[in-house]
Amino acid sequence: MVVRTRFTSIAVPLLFHLFSGAVGGFFVWHAFHGGRGVAADLQTRREIASVEAKLKQVRAEKAVWDRRTKLLRGPVVDRDLLDEEARNELNRVGKDDLVIILPQQKN
To answer: Fewer beta carbons within 10 Å, N or C terminal of the chain?
Structure first.
């Protein structure tokens, strides 16, 4: 009888602590590797940084196009820009122009 009491007095707390550790480990593992864990947060931050960099690039390109369209509007039109755009749209060159054909870039 003494052996059983001593065994249960050691085994029950030991099993309780092992079970508690396993449950705690489960939650800690999912806190790092789960869908909303630390690893997912880092991945989301990387994606946000890449999208913000692309947004910055697109905004710069938009500013260039806004500036060019302002030159084509209004009472005074930039003749050089108008001539360049007309030649691009019509796919023509002037008789005094020098044409250099470059190889196409591979993406």
So the answer is: C
How is residue 74 annotated by DSSP?
S
Q: Is 94 exposed, middle or buried (0-12, 13-18, 19+ CB in 10 A)?
A: exposed
pLDDT of residue 105: 82
Per-residue pLDDT tens over the stretch 27-66: 999 998 888 889 999 999 999 999 999 999 999 999 999 9
Instruction: Give the residue carrying structure tokens 């820009």.
Output: 81
Return all residues near 93 (Cβ < 8 A) that are at least 6 apart.
87, 99
Angle between helices 2-33 and 38-72 (to 10 degrees): 10
The H-or-E segment that residue 30 falls in is helix 2-33
Tokens standing for 63? 């500013």
Which positions ≥6 away from 68 have C-beta within 8 Å? 81
